[in-house]
Model the fold of this input.
Amino acid sequence: MIKKSSSQYTQLKEDSVKPKKEFTFFEDVYEVVRLIPKGRVSSYGAIASYLGTKLSARMVGWAMNAAHQVRPKVPAHRVVNRNGMLTGKHHFSTPTEMEVLLKKEGVLIENDTVIDFKSKFWDPSKELGM
DNA sequence: TTCCTGACTCCAG
DNA sequence: CCTGGAGCCAGGA
Done:
């Protein structure tokens, strides 16, 4: 039982002014997503990788979950999984919202998957240079 | 505090 | 081709 007291860390921080953490990761995710060109799509893993946390693709999805209430607007519909599947469609106002938005931008969907995903794929590490 | 879940991905069978 | 488990880490119960 290594029951340590957290008090030993309390003096480490004096920034009692800031109740919240920095949330830089989420903000970075939103910024990258906003850079995805219209008519193109990216993946959770690609974004995570670009931000240096390759193994945290799930966190990108988690960030998208809260992206709807973030301003400026975040085009979350342009983020799909590595296979081009619209795994996040159920998190939009309607189950077809994501697909409709993409089609409006020229990205065709079939069976919940982006058609010709390979050519529509936008890799931040490659496009933004790394 | 601990435990569980997830808009993911990789790897082994 | 499909399935399951591990690693990731922020929140909610």
Summary: The longest strand of chain A covers residues 42-43. The CA atoms of residues 29 and 97 of chain A lie 21 Å apart.
